[in-house]
Design a protein that fits this description.
This protein is mostly helical. Helices cover 58% and strands 4% of the residues. The protein is built from eight helices and three strands; from the N terminus they run H-H-H-H-H-H-H-E-E-E-H. A three-stranded mixed sheet has the order 2-1-3, with no helix packed on it. Helix 2 runs parallel beside helix 5. It is elongated, with a radius of gyration of 23 Å. It starts with 10 loop residues before the first helix and ends with a helix.
Length: 233
């Protein structure tokens, strides 16, 4: 029977879950969306790295959270800030000119995520009996890692299936697919109309043949796409 003033270990799974979701969105979903919208891999990695660097600097605001307000208030502040910043990341235009803003919002979102974890750690230290702290720590890590998988995996799935900002239907492939006409497949000799057999210029090798607009005119058709490339669809 749980004593008054103590916290059950499983509670920590749900308390830290929002922090993991925020981390997963920034570390997995955000770079996926950025690269799909034509951002170079190096730029996407820089945005994510600077955002996640908030975890390195939380020792600066950790004492502030310990000495001011209450753990419950800091937790609610961190939770609200995480929600607001993740929503903001969904509305910021994905343009090269918006890189500084994207980086700043990603960093703030991870500062907010640390403000979720700091009071939860304090709650564990003060309200969990010694013999149950191992289980509480396990639930804490499960919530953090599970939230990362949920925020990243679910975010990628939603972006791939429902987001109008997914670059696979946008700037990277749209410039080729928006024009009619037929293109030769790299593996079969027939001509495939894009309306019937979509091509995959983004994953195929760079051919030396180009159309009148300077774009590649030889691609893999969907039926002949190699298995090792099909996995990147």
């Amino acid at each position: 029977m749980r004593q008054p003033g103590t916290t059950a270990p499983f509670i920590f799974f749900f308390l830290v879950l929002p922090s993991g979701i925020s981390n997963g969105f920034v570390s997995i979903t955000l770079p996926f969306i950025l690269t799909q919208n034509g951002f170079p891999v190096a730029t996407s990695a820089s945005i994510v790295a600077l955002g996640l660097s908030a975890n390195l600097w939380r020792f600066l605001w950790g004492p502030v959270a310990d000495l001011t307000l209450t753990a419950r208030r800091w937790y609610l502040i961190g939770l609200a800030a995480s929600v607001v910043t993740l929503i903001a990341l969904g509305f910021i235009p994905f343009r090269q000119s918006g890189v500084p803003l994207l980086t700043a919002v990603a960093f703030i979102s991870q500062v907010a995520a640390t403000l979720i974890m700091l009071p939860v750690g304090g709650l564990m230290a003060h309200t969990v009996p010694e013999e149950q702290k191992g289980r509480a720590a396990g639930r804490f890590q499960a919530g953090n890692l599970g939230g990362t998988g949920l925020g990243g995996g679910a975010g990628v799935w939603l972006a791939a299936h429902y987001s109008k900002r997914n670059g696979r239907n946008g700037p990277r492939s749209g410039h080729a697919d928006s024009r009619g006409g037929a293109h030769f497949c790299l593996r079969c000799p027939t001509r495939h109309q894009r309306a019937n057999r979509p091509t995959h210029a983004s994953v195929g090798p760079r051919p030396s043949f180009h159309d009148g607009h300077g774009h590649p005119s030889v691609h893999y058709c969907s039926g002949c796409l190699p298995d090792w490339l099909r996995r990147h669809e």
